[in-house]
Amino acid sequence: MTDDPRRRVEEHGLGLVDSFTKKYKVNRLVCFEVYRDAETAASRERQIKNFRREKKIALFAETNPRWEDLNKQLSVSYKEVLM
Q1: Number of domains in the chain
Q2: H or E segment and range at residue 10
Q3: Element (H, E) at 53
Q4: Which of 29, 54, 63, 68 is deepest in the core (most CB within 10 A)?
Q5: pLDDT tens-digit profile of 51-62?
Q6: Range of the domain at 11
């Protein structure tokens, strides 16, 4: 969860955050969700983190069937929701 998704993607891409993305060298953004308030976003993040791997993969495939890198779309979608 972040209020600055572009910064977060950059941090993960550069390996600056000690996390799953650094450990497994994940370098593409294939799924994201935008919420207006932090409480709802945090709740959804906890929910997804508790999903089994198969359910996570199904969610990602449903929202992005070609598993494209959504980094460029992120800035547009994020700005649209905040307006």
Answers
A1: 1
A2: helix 5-14
A3: helix 53-63
A4: 29
A5: 999 999 999 999
A6: 5-82
